[in-house]
């Protein structure tokens, strides 16, 4: 069997010369599937995402996309390989318009970006209405749509999202999850970190519980939701 489309395997490392934050952490996602990382604050979820995206020097482990080893590539070179990353904070340019944000997302492309922009507007119709407005004037949920849309402008094969629903209402969260499912159905591989663990595991093909930079529990979303230990420790019973 071919290996999963995205793999971060046995990742060990930390920031600069500091202590290791990740301890042999492994994450993988099949093509067009959704993997969700959950775990307590400070568990290293964002650090694991940064490691997969090449923002951390790993002491051990490897990252592969489509079977190709990209462990030593810069984030920009990973974008060229099909990775897109929406970080937890500062994920839009607030003073630029919605449309300028989308254009920034496509800065590496030399072909016609119009069709992709239309796809983003079809996915998030509110952004079409607000395309001439400064992104910083949008609501939290709309800004997250800008961030996701901007990431999609590179036509990635892998979309990585760090807490895409942070600070939004439950209704907006459900809506955003529906859009993420739609993106996955289009064949894009999704790796995301979520604070709303229960709801996120409901849409997860694979779930990872990280604790202190290591894999604590792994299973399908369904399995983790049914696991008494996971429920008691991480899902509030
Ligand atoms: N830029 C950085 N430089 C040094 N240490 C960092 C840096 N960013 C995070 N850390 C440390 O790495 C550890 C893991 O942090 P990380 O942000 O990955 O956790 P997290 O699981 O994403 O938490 P949260 O749920 O709060 O977003 C923490 O101890 C944190 O202090
Ligand atoms: Mg985080």
UniProtKB/TrEMBL annotation:
GO BP terms: L-amino acid transport
DNA repair among keywords: no
Domain ABC transporter intervals: 6-237
Claim: NADP is one of the keywords in the record: no
InterPro entries from the UniProt entry: AAA+_ATPase, ABC_transporter-like_ATP-bd, BCAA_Transport_ATP-bd_LivF, P-loop_NTPase
Annotated SUPFAM superfamilies: P-loop containing nucleoside triphosphate hydrolases
Key words of the record: Amino-acid transport, ATP-binding, Nucleotide-binding, Transport
Entry-linked Gene3D superfamilies: P-loop containing nucleotide triphosphate hydrolases
MF annotations from Gene Ontology: ATP binding; ATP hydrolysis activity; branched-chain amino acid transmembrane transporter activity
Similarity comment: Belongs to the ABC transporter superfamily.
PANTHER family: HIGH-AFFINITY BRANCHED-CHAIN AMINO ACID TRANSPORT ATP-BINDING PROTEIN LIVF
Name of the protein: Amino acid/amide ABC transporter ATP-binding protein 2, HAAT family
Annotated organism of origin: Limimaricola pyoseonensis
